[in-house]
Design brief:
Order of helices and strands: HEEEEEEEEHHHHEE
CATH class of the largest domain: Mainly Alpha
Structural class: alpha+beta
Oligomer: single chain
Shape: elongated
Number of strands: 10
Strand order of the largest sheet: 1-6-7-5
Largest sheet: 4 strands, antiparallel
Amino acid sequence: MLGPKLLGHELYSLRLLRSASRTEGLVGSKIVGVEARGKNLLVHFAPRASSVEDEPAKGAAWSFHVHLKMNGRVRLYARRSAPAIALSHASAVLETEAQRVVVYDAPIARLLRTRDLRGDFHLRGLGPDLLAPSFALEEACTRLNARAATPLGEAIMDQGVVAGIGNVWKSELCFSLRLDPFAPVRAFAPEELSALLSLARSQMGDNVYGPQRTLPDPFTSRAQRKARLDPRQGEGALSVYGREGKPCYDCGGVLAMRRQGEQLRSTYYCARCQSARGEG
């Protein structure tokens, strides 16, 4: 959504409000790329001839990197009619002549040389991107199988396995295929794991590119994820996530939630539909 508004336009200003990095040398640079790598947002600037000695300086291509983590958000406004910025929550502000992009509460909002992206700590270990134009399914399956002893719900959220799956999708995907998120990866057949990743790509792609995302203002309206397969009248868009203690749409059993992993992320599931899996 950012790409059509920014690509080809010159940078008017970039303020990194939680960093001492200087950005004035980038003013006037053309924006030549806007991309997602898993959960990472990257905005790329073309090299620019400049007499400014401070970095970023002439001859180098630079990239603006954002990761929103749990609480960050991005808002896009027409620059001349944009509301006042709540600086206490803003991490960065990027402007072209026509647009203002405000990044709020993002733990990562930084500038780095484009040539350093390949070896960067935050990006170098990412697995195949589920929403990339060409998804390396076989490589993702190999990486997933390498986490043989890891519970499935933890393994598919490991961005080094596959980039893009978050907490909501973890729960919904496992439910859709009736997989036990607490069983180790080795308990599942290769075709089950392949089907899980294929469904993730299909369902997440539908949410990003499908008609439900064509909102009047997608940056200020929170689009509802739709993970429920073939919903019936009266059912919500999600099967299990956030529905602890409520009846399962499919079997009527009571849905539950357990914490998983070092970060104690919530996993929602139906014990009836997703029967406990042995070691395989």
